[in-house]
């Protein structure tokens, strides 16, 4: 769609009609992820044309311009492919930085436990903080950045029940490797699982027997929200709300933002 002017126009025009017909405040694009420089260039062109069309429609309709945002990779540098930061900054009202899913799938024989959404990761550049700093250093205004954290965790089977910290060996996934926060809290209660908060990386995990789950609990979420305030970011988001447990994460994030 983004590679041709005609298909970009079709997408943009239909998206604006959709938003106006349904009384939306704006539109958010989720392209996971432009994989090469050509796709990144097309992404930038799409955003520029979208912003121009939104501004034109606002003038003709007399309505406030639609808000435009995008879900983007945790860093402006997507594994060697650079985002079109100037076009993103000029065209969007904000970006939703997906600072999670840092522990990727690997063969069971080499899979290790790890913080799935570490705010800090000493010695590496794969963390929420490293990504946010990369965006800001690439001239993305901090007040257009929204940091995200997960309302779910990654569940693994420990190779050795007595080795249960971060970077322990595993023998495979549990429940296809994903559990919502509500499921995690139920697992902890039903199995009297041990809970651990790691303040160095800002991440949580729990374990019972050989079942291990890495996730964000309330302390990780509140720390990340305070980080967003300290860095003068626009805000935060959680993906996704239906996974919360009686709004525990959402309420804690709100308290931390308002504190």
From TrEMBL:
Residues 1-259 form the GH18 domain. GO terms for molecular function: chitin binding; chitinase activity. One of its GO terms (cellular component) is extracellular region. The keyword Nucleotide-binding does not apply. It comes from the Eukaryota. GO terms for biological process: carbohydrate metabolic process; chitin catabolic process. Pfam families: Glyco_hydro_18 (PF00704). Keywords: Glycoprotein, Glycosidase, Hydrolase, Signal. Belongs to the glycosyl hydrolase 18 family. Chitinase class V subfamily. PANTHER family: CHITINASE, GLYCOSYL HYDROLASE FAMILY PROTEIN WITH CHITINASE INSERTION DOMAIN-CONTAINING PROTEIN. This is GH18 domain-containing protein.
């Amino acid at each position: 769609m983004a590679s041709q002017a005609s298909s970009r126009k079709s997408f943009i025009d239909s998206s604006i009609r959709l938003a106006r017909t349904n009384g939306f405040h704006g539109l958010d694009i989720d392209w996971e992820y432009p994989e090469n420089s050509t796709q990144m260039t097309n992404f930038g062109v799409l955003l520029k044309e979208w912003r121009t069309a939104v501004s034109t429609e606002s003038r003709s309709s007399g309505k406030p311009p639609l808000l435009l945002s995008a879900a983007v990779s945790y860093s402006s540098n997507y594994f060697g492919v650079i985002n079109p930061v100037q076009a993103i900054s000029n065209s969007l009202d904000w970006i939703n930085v997906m600072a999670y899913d840092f522990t990727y799938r690997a063969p069971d024989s080499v899979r290790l436990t790890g913080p799935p959404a570490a705010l800090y990761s000493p010695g590496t550049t794969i963390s929420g903080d490293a990504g946010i700093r990369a965006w800001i250093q690439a001239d993305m205004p901090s007040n257009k950045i929204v940091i995200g954290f997960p309302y779910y965790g990654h569940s693994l089977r420990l190779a050795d029940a007595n080795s249960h910290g971060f970077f322990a060996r595993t023998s495979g996934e549990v429940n296809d490797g994903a559990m919502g926060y509500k499921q995690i809290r139920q697992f902890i209660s039903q199995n009297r699982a041990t809970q651990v908060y790691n303040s160095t990386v800002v991440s949580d995990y729990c374990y019972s027997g050989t079942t291990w789950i890495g996730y964000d609990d309330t302390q990780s979420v509140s720390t990340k929200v305070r980080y967003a305030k300290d860095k003068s970011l626009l805000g935060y988001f959680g993906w996704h709300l239906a996974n919360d447990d009686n709004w525990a994460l959402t309420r804690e994030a709100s308290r931390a933002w308002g504190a």
